[in-house]
Structure formats: C-alpha cells, structure tokens
Amino acid sequence: MNKYIKNIAVKSSIIGFITLFFTSCEKGFLNKNPLTQISSPTFWKTQGDADMALAGCYARLNCNTFNYEGNMALDIMAGDANEGAQSLGANSTGTFALGQIESTSGGLLANVYNDCFRGIATCNFFLENIDKVPVTDAIKTQYKGEARFLRALFYFTLTDFYGGVPLYTKLVTIDEAKVKQSTKEEVMVQVVADLDMAIASLANTEYQTAGHAVKGSALALKSRVLLFQKDWAGAAASANQVMTDGKFSLYNNYKNLFLTVGQNVNPEIMFSTRYLNPDNFSQQDIRIEWHAIWNPRQELVNAFECTDGLPITTSPLYNPANWKLNRDPRLLLTLKAFSDPAVKASGQVVPYAYNGGSTTGYEPTKGADVEALPVDYSTKSEQDWILLRYAEVLLNFAEATNEVSGPTVAVYNAINLVRGRPSINMPPIPAGLTKDSMRTRIWNERRVEFGMEGRRYSDIRRWKLAETYINSLVEPGSGVRRVFNPAKHYLWPFPQSEIDVNKNLMQNPGY
Amino acid sequence: MRLQKKLLLTISSCFLFCLFATAQTKKITGNVKDPDNNPLVGVTVKIKGINQSTVTSSDGSFSIQVTNNAKAMVFSYVGMETQEVSISGKTNFLIQLRTVAYSLNDVVVVGYGTQKKVNLTGSVASISGQELIKRPSTNVQNLLQGKIAGLQVSSAFGKPGNEGNTLRIRGLGTFSSAGSDPLVLINGINGDMTNLDPNDIESVSVLKDAASSSIYGARAANGVILITTKKGKAQVLSIDFNSNVQFQSATRLPELLSNSADYMKYWNEGRVRSGQIPYFSQQEIDAYRNNPNDPVRYPNFNWIDHCFKTAITNNQSLNIGGGNEKSTFNLSLGYYDQPGITSLYGFKKYNARLSVETKVKEWLTVGGDIQFVNKDIVKSNWDNDVDYQVLAIYGAGPLYNPTMTLPDGTTGYVARYGSNIGEWTVRNPDAQDASGIKKDVRYNVVPQFYAEAKILKDLTWSAKGAVTFDYTSLKNHEHAVNNYYFKDGTFAHNNAPQTLGVQDYWSTNVLKTFYSTLNYRKVFNGTHNVNILAGYNQESNLFRSIGGTKVTFPTIDLREIDAGSALGQTTSGSASEWSIRSLFGRMAYNFKDKYLFEANARYDGTSRIAPANRWGFFPSVSAGWRLSEESFMKNITWLQNLKIRGSWGQLGNQNVGTYPYQEVLSTTSYPFSTAYPAAYVNRMVDKSLKWETTTMTDFGVDINVKDGLFTATFDWFNKVTDNILYSIPIPASVGLSAPTVNYGKMKNKGFEIQVGTAKQLGNFKYDVNFNLSHFKNEVLRILAPSYGNTTIQEGLPFNSYYMVEWDGIFQNQAEIDKSPKHPFNPKPGDLKYKDANGDGIINPKDRVVVPGAYPKFIYGGSLNLSWKNFDLTAFVQGLYGLKATTQGLSWGLVPYIQGSPPPVDFIKNMWTGEGSTNKNPAMYISGYGPVTGTTSTYWLLDASYLRLKNLAIGYNIPKSITRKIGLQDLNVYASGDNILTFTKWPGSDPEKANTGWFESYPQLVTYTLGIRVKL
Predict the structure, then answer these.
(1) What is the mean pLDDT of residues B923-933?
(2) Do A121 and B673 touch (CB under 8 A)?
(3) What pTM does this model have?
(4) Got the DSSP string for A348-407?
C-alpha cells in the first residue's frame, strides 16, 4: 500500500511540474488592453494630451463637409455645376438638384448633419475636460478659444442647412440627445457667444504659418454669420475689424491661392481644412482631374465679365465664337473646356485622362494641380481647402455696408480691391451705382470670385434667389427642368433615421 | 501441401509446448490474414485481461511472450471484425479476420477524447481521412463539401491557394461581426484546415449540437470541427506515396459577343434607346463588317479564349510511419504546385509533419508533433475580393487587340477603342497583368508536445502544450503602364495604378495553447459505465504587423523598399492581443450501453469582455436510449442498432472584437505646420458587453440494419442565438458612433438526414451514402427593420430579398399606357413590374419579400463500388432553392457595363418586337433606367445546382505483380472533378453565387491521373 501511495506521489509531482511549467500563473492573463489606441480613463494628464485632443477637434475638419468633396457638390445644388457623366458619387447632389430632396435621401443631406455633430461632440469633449490638464490659464484660454471657434463653425454650418438643431454644449448621452431642436435664433446666440469668446482669446496674427485659428479667423466667420442673419451693421463691423487689424491681405496669385505651391506662406487664407502628405492627404486632384465629378455649367461661364468690366451681354469684347477671349482672368482659373489639355509649368502639354465625360462641356481648374497629371489612385493631394479668406471679408464688408449706407466709397474700395488683385486686374466697378445695382454687382462678384468654392448655394438661399434661379435651369442633355420649392427647399430635411430615433425632433416643413 | 504445413506446425508447437510447459511464461506465435488470404499488417494482438499487446509485422506474423495463466487473445484491426481466440494451451495460431461493413465498436473523436459511436448522445458526424482523399483535391474544406449533413461549404472561386470557402454548420448562426465560422481544432489546437495535407488526416469529426460542442464553451456557437492527423503504428513500417497530375480549366464561362460589328451596332442601339449619342459611325461599323480577315486593324477579338487556359498541377505526398512497441513515429512530406488558369496566378504549397510518441514508462506516454506549412501564392496586383482580373476579361471589347503598333512604330497596350467612349471602361487585361504582381507568402509552424499518464488503473491524466506560429508576408508591386486608343494610337491613360510602387506587409501571429485533462473511466459490475473528465485550458494570442510603402523607384525591376525614394513613403504597424482561460468537464454514464446520459460544461473567461462579466458558464445535457439493447427487441436480429437521443445546451460566441468594452480615444493626426498627433472620442462603448449565446435543442435517431445494409441518422434541431452584437440606432447628434450592445436574436431550425447502404457480395462491394439537410432562418429580435434590396425584419429570414416583382416585358405602347405608371418612362421592350400595393404607381413601396436568401436544402451523395481490383467512386453535391441577385455587379451579364460585351445567349433571346418574347428586354445598356434602375426580381436568378463533384476509377495492381516489384500495394486512378453541372444559372459558376458578384475567378474542372503506392 505504501508503495502504491509513493507511486501516486511520484506521478502526481511529475504532472504537477508539467502543469506549472505550462500554466501561466500571471494575474493579468486575461487583462489585455488596446496597444494602438489611447485609453480614455488615463488621458488628460499632460499638456501633450491637451494638444492631441485639440488637434482632434481640428481633425474633424478632414471630412466631406469641410473639403472640396462636399463644397463642390454644393455648387451642383447651387446651379453653378452639374454632376459628371459617370456618376461617381457627388454626394447624391445631382438628384437633389432636380428637387428630389427627401428625408431618406442620404448623401450630402446626411453627411453635413453627421460631420458637424461629430465635430461638435469632439469640441464639447475637449471643453469639458481641458480644465483637468495642468497647464497655465493662458494656454487653457487660448485652447478653449480655438475649440469654441470650431464649435461655432460646426453649429453655424448646421443652421445654414437645417435651421434650428439640437443644441449641446457638453458631450451628451443617448437619452440627452433625444430632445426637440433649439430654434435657429437660440443656436445663433451660442454661435456668436462662442465666436466672441474666441475673438477675445485668440492671438491677433496671421493664420497660415501655424495653422491654428486666430482672432482674424473668428472675426471673419463672425462677419459671415452676421451677414447671413442680415445683421448688416454687425457683419460690417466684424469685417472692418479684420481690415483695420491688417493681419491679412489679398494674395497676388489667384491660381496658386488654391494650390499647395501658393499656400505655404499666404496672407489671404484665414482658415482652412489642412492637408499634408503623407499622413493627411486628399483626393482633390483625382476627383477633379480624373473622375470629373463636378462640371461647371454654362450659366457660371456666362457670369464672368469681359476684361472691360462689362457682362458678356453688353461687352464689345465678347466673342461668341471663342468664349475664352477677353474674359475676366478668373474664368479660366476657375474652369476650362472639357477637351482642353493641361499645360504644366514646364510648358509640357498633357491631356487629362478623364474617365467620365462632362455633362456640360466644362471642367473645373480651380484647386486642380496640373503638375499632378497624370493622376491615378496613388495620387495624394495636399491642397488645403480654404474655408475663410480675406476676399470674403472684403465682399462681406461691401455687401453689409451697402445694405446699411448704400454704395459708399468704402464699398467701392472693398469690391475694387478684390477685382483689382494683382494677377486679376479687373477694372473698378463703374461709379454712380444705386444701392440696388451695387447689390447686383456684389452678388455677381461673389459668384465669380468664389466660383466652385461651394459658397453660392448659401448665398442664393439667403438672397432668396434660389426659387427663381434654380427653377429657370434646364439640365443639358436630358432637358429636365430643375426644381426648387420655396415652401420647403430653403431648409434641408433632418435625416429620417434621426427622426426615427428621436421622437422629439420636429421635421422641417414640407418633408 | 497446406494441410501438411498445418500439421507440421501443430506438431512442432505441441513439441514446444511440452518443452516449456513447466516455464512461468510461454511464447505464442501466429499469422493473421484477411479474407483474401493476404497477410494483415498492424493487427493489434492483445492478451485479454492484462495490459499486454503486440502488433503483426509486415508478413502478418506475430510473436508474444505470455504468462501461463493467459486465457485468450483479442485481434483487432480497422475495418475488420474483432476476433477473440482462446489460448487454451495452443502456442501457434492462424487467424483469419472478417471484414465488417459496419462496426458497433467504431470510435469517433469528440471534445477532449473519444467515444464509441453507438454511445453518442450528441450529434456528431465523422468521416475518415481515407474517405476524404478519394477525391484528389488538396483543400480539406473543399473535400468536406457535401460529405456531412448539416455542414455547408460554399466555395467562392477557384483561385489557386484561395478558394474563399465559407463553412456553416446548421445555418447562419449570427448576423453580427462575431461571425458564423465554426471552431476548427487540429489535434486539439485551433488552426486553419487549409494548411493540412489531406493525406495526413486520420479523421474529421463535426460536432453539431450543444451536447457535443459545449465542452468548447464560448467558442462553440457555430459548431466545432475536430481534425486528427495520422500517427505511426507499432511494428509496422508503412511507406505510402501518392502522386498525381491534374489538368484544370474553368467550369463555366459566359459566352460573350465577339463579333465587333455586332458589338458596335448593339451598343449604338442601346445608347440610342437610353437617349444617348451612338458611339460608332456607320462607316466604322461597316469597316469592321467588311474586313473580317484583317485581325490587326479590324479584330473580332475573343478575350475569354485569349485569357483562360488549361493549367497542369502536380501533387506529391509521402508518408512514412512505424515504430516499435515503445515508440512510434510518423513523417509526412507534401508538395503541391498549382498554376492558375489565367496569367500571373499560381500556388505552391509545401507540407511537412513529424509525429513521435514514446512510452517512457508503462504508465507514462509522451509525444510531440510538428506541423510545417509554406504557401506561396502569386496573383494579379488587382486581385481582391472583387477579382478585377476576371472583371477586366469579361469587360473587354472585341473590337481591339491587347496590343497595337503605335504611330511611332513601338508596341503599346490598348486602352479602348477611342477617346469618344468617355466612360470608365475596364482596363485591358493584358496591360493590367503587365502592371505588376502580388505575392503572398505564408508560413505556419505548429510544434506541440503532450504527455499522458495512467495515474491509477482507471484514472488518466493528459496535458498538451502547443505554439502556433503564423507568419505572412505580402508584397505588392505595381507600376504605370501606358495605354493607347485603338482608333488612332493616341495616349489614353497610364493604367491608373491603385497602389503605385512597392507595398510590403509582414505579420506574425502567435497562439499559445495549453490544456490538461483528468479522465476517470470505470465499469462497475459490468453494467454501470462511468466516464468523468475534468480539464483546464488556456490560450493567448498576439498578433503583430508592420508595413511600408514607397511610390517611386528608379526602375520597374527594383522591388525592395530601400530602392525607392522617400517621397510619399508610408509606414504602418499594429498589434493586438487576446486570451482565454477555461475550466471544463464531462460526466457520462450509461447503464449496460442501453441508457445513456451525459452532461458537459465549460466555464470560460475571456480578455475580450470586461472583468465584471468576463466569466461565462456553458452547460449541456443529453440522453440516449438504445432500444435495440432492450430485451423485447433482442430477438429482432436484423436490427443491430436503434437509438433515440436528445440534447439541450448553451454555447457562446466570444468573437465580439478584441477590445470591445474599453473606452479608447481614436488617434489620427492633423497638419498644423507639420502633422501633429490628434486624439478624439469616436465611439460609445457598452461596458457590460458580453458574448453571444446560442441555445440549441437536438433530437436524433440512429439506425443500423443488417450490418450496415441500411444505416440512417436523423437529427432535428432548434438553434436560437441571443445577445447578438447589435449596433443600436442612436441620434447622430450625439456625434459618436453607436455602441455595440447585445441585443439581436435569431433562430435556425432544421433537420439533417444521412442514409447509407453497404454490402459485400463475393468480389463485389458497394457502399452508397446520401445526406440532406435543411434549415429555416428567422430573425427574432432587432430594433429597427432595414429595407433595401434585402430586408431585415423580425419573423423573416435574415436579409430576405426585398424587391419589386418583375412581370414580363412591355409588348407595345398600349400595354404601357394601361399599366401602372412605371419609373423612367419605359418603352415597348422594357421590363414590366407588378404594382404590389395597387396605388397605380411602381415605386419602392411595391417591394415584396421574395424567398431564396438561403437554400431550401443542401445535399450530397456518394457511391463507392469495387469489384475485384477495380473501384469506382462517384460523388454528387448540390443545393436547391437558393437565389442570387446580380443587379449592378454583372460584368459578363449586363450588356455594355463599362463596355462589357453582351452574352450571346441574351442576343438570341432578347425582345425584338411585339410578341417576340416575354422573358428578356430589348437590347439595353448598363444604367438604362427602365431595365436596371429598379431593383427587381428580373435580376434574381436561381442559383440551385446539382453537380457531379467527382467521378474516380481506380485499379489495384494485383498483389502477385506488386510483390515482384517490391511493393505492397499499387493503385492507379483517374478522376474528374466538377465534370457535370445541372443549373439554370447563366454563364458563370452557380457555386459562387452567394458573393453578390456575377463575375469571379471560375471554379475548376479538374482531371486527375494519379498513383497510390504502398511500399
């Protein structure tokens, strides 16, 4: 019996040894943490954390709504462009342009909503936590100013398209998000408050070198916000503040303003969505020079004056046989004939290898880098997409001042400065215009100066031009008439999925 | 003569017996033969009652020293009836074993052990390696197709080294990212069965119900497949050599229009019908039509003939096994070389395996096994899930050649006919091939060591440790290739490279497994059979990857990263870990092999779930009753086995993501003046997230009549998966992505039948098997139904087709006028739809649920015949009731999608005027609203098929001849795979129909010539 027990003991100890040898006794065997992501409970400890989180707020700009993709698609809706022949995703705006806008439509209608609220959540997350980080109050104030500037940009963009939206100034839970929308006015109060805080706390310097929002960025946005609210005096005052601060000026090369080569040091850019190879690149050249998504319409071509400052309908310089002759230089810096090849800086002539036809016969040139040709899937573009530039401040000032006090000298000066920019050199606006005719000139100046930059859809809606202009348009090829129903189309519908989840949200009228 | 020999033996043994009668031990010798009087090698000879045994050697003889009180010997051999022989003083024996068609002693591999098949209470299907390799394919997944009721193997394509198989046991287990793939264990270690050489396989068991698989707990929800590899046999040196050559070609390819003049004419027609300007002038068309013998300027190029070819593969496998009473070994080597049936593609596979096992002590066995696999796969650099190479072949137009002479006299690739075809046409297949190649090199090395100790007579302990190394390196090389317009030789494009330059990606995955079990087996009073198992298991996994790309290289021949310029280079790297720790156990009890009971359970803790609820318990219970053992049925002698059984249990699917519960910030970067690291909150998390739980009930019947003359197994199951990972809809205004929570619920209910008959009649032997299974899927709980081309709704099968019903072809304007208003202003010859809601307008509101998302049943059948030295096997497999939609993704089916030529069959059957047909529309082009604009059942095609998967004829060279050349066995065979297919599916292969794409790398018809040699 003893032997028997001994036998078992020997066997068991061998087994025990083998078992121990293999078995991992470490306590943390089942505790595995992500190896490539930051754990949020341990964040907000150092200035480095704060810097990263602030960069995170900016990184939310790298999306359709705030780059060429969404903005050039807006020009389709504005009636300045059409969708390319090969539908490669213009955010569904080709369909929307025909008036087929429904809550279930998706595309840009949903993207703008989602992109902006993602940005807002990121800013709110930052603002809620920044006080935990041991940095000086000065740094905190500056960082908060930048985050609030961004939040203002996101909320303003939302109200521009959807009117009143749910308003949050903190990160919300699912239940807290099931609320009725605030009115547009309530949201605008918050937007202006955010901008005023930003104006008070941000550095009064140029923007482009450091790439962080500065006081001028916030003032420029505020002038746009107030202009859109028809607060003419306020809009003019904010614009004027930028002009007197003198930190920004017009860039002397209109073409390069939109290309990387001109963006390194640039006095005109006041805020932008930034790209930089190799980590942050875009498909801007692929989309413009290859996919040919956005085709400028004849109506936009016709809006450019001749070099004598007269519209093509009256200018003796206009040559119907060659539309390119004697035109405002911005025309060919904005668009080109579909079949025209590219000319590189070296003088080399290269064809564009578009893989879709143009539905209008035109293709954009603004922001398209011909040096990148031939483009393919490996092409990585790094042009910044300009969100605010000094020319807009000048035209905001001109428009607002004209509304307040008519075509004063200051109004003339502002608009003529834009027209006379070196490399453009268009003649001044004729003297002696009435307030109304000056308004018409300013409206057209905005159209051509910001052609294919995605500004016009907002402009024609705030000017209430959309219902007459868009309804006058006929699609080339199909002959279908575009539709803009003033009873509903001045605002977009909330995405149906949002209405489904949040019963308190009231759908916009007509949807 | 024979009698004399026997007599002599008897006399001499008597003499020997007398001589040693007084000794303590005696030596017993003998010979064992098969029914044909051939010596049987490797028969186990066991002395009854004591733990002493030997095996017969290569001439069938054995010799064993036994004590005088030894009473009887037991002879056992696979496929033969076990025979017990009384010793009673004899010392020399001539034993002849009888073959059995069906054995009640058959043992199957189950979780952490083996079990007699007749005593199973769960649903386990098994198949021997011998049966598997009757079909000469090298992918084990493909070999399992159609062989096991309830296991559905769908093959996406016939790509060398990547068949894209999906395996589903008993339907679709879940609709979440946790997936429905079964757990695959190779010798107990989680692994990829495509790594195996089928010749190495001893057996495959498929655990289908909860009773059999709950011992694998949180990973068993989708069923478990256990694969056991061969071990050496004592006293027998066996050397097997298998070699074959295969001729492979595409099963089915669409026949596309290759007459250029017709191609141009129909494209013009289609464009005019769409209100677009024709692409070709009448002169251009006439030039092609009038110059049929000028293939340089006016080709009628058939791209399919040009691109697809017959590939010759070669497959070698060597297996050496043997050993002595203490130690055994098994060594195998395999080589497989498979070129593709299109250019660039190729696959080479090298296999090696060494297993050794030794008895250190009478009570202690230790062993080890090393698996080594190397797979080298090359493919088109445009290869991904979409198979762009095949897409390009189907999409290329007949009116241009692959290359042309350019105006400057050089040769260039053709992009397309002319620049006026301003569409995104597909790339020239040859130019695409010239633009680079993708290489995928994989190594898999699995060393494992184990020990087994008999602590007590009835108590066995075992342990196994293994490390699985998986190493992958991917290299993609691509460069620009200039393409020109055929019409005038002007530059078109540079082939638009997708990943220009060199892309390198290396990853390693290391899985460490350890498990240990204690097993107590005892029979009390010869009636109470008890089997208790308790065990521990732990696994940890670390994945790491690193990658880099460079864009610009000095020449296209330089392909290593260092040769490229730094401009635009990128790097990437990642790592992730998971671990799982488990306790498990089984208690089985049966009374006289008549009443069977079993309970299994596993307690799993996983790193993937938050500490508060990371441990989960997965139990199962089952019972069986062998009616045939009851006294009242004992006199029914023709009924060998009749068993009814039932089981219930719960299983988990812990594959919920690696870190689903942790609150993490996403990292990116934003370029202020330089790229600056950025972090933001991106997703909501549910910290209480846990695994999906599957509850399964199973009832089954097993029948065996007259020694296998008729066998049948029937199973009914109900499988309910709850807590399915679900992204709940949240307001987008939260600004974060929705949390994944346990919410969804789904059911699969169905049955499986497996029937067979086998019999030997003299020299003639037959064996027929057929299996059929059916399941019905039903979504039980979701929050918000989804509606698209498919719909997800409670009460319906997951992703049921949801589309407008097609109702023929508009024959004339009057018919259009009196029909409900159709979208896109159709013309006569366009599709007509049903107005399901009767509101007089055809729109998405007219979508109806259409069955066909899952097959009504899948089936397979095999026939084995042998007569003298000839054998014949045939294997059919198929499914019924599956439909697949091809709308939109149909190069080779939809006319002129990116210039793709229309199928000849369509042209023959298209609408050409009133009354011509009600089945097909008039010639149209891709994107033509009245035909392609509405998601309709016109595009929902029947993907049912019946396929003769394999037909093989073999001949065993008579032993009289093989002996002379020093071989034991020599078998020569010829076989054909996928040689007959019955289906309504047009053009391409019906088997890949589940991918959503019409085009894919075709399945293969394989003709094989091979030999199997036993030395």
Answers:
(1) 86
(2) no
(3) 0.84
(4) -EE----SS--SSSEEE-TT--GGGPSP-TT--B-PPEEEEEHHHHHHHHHHHHHHHH-S
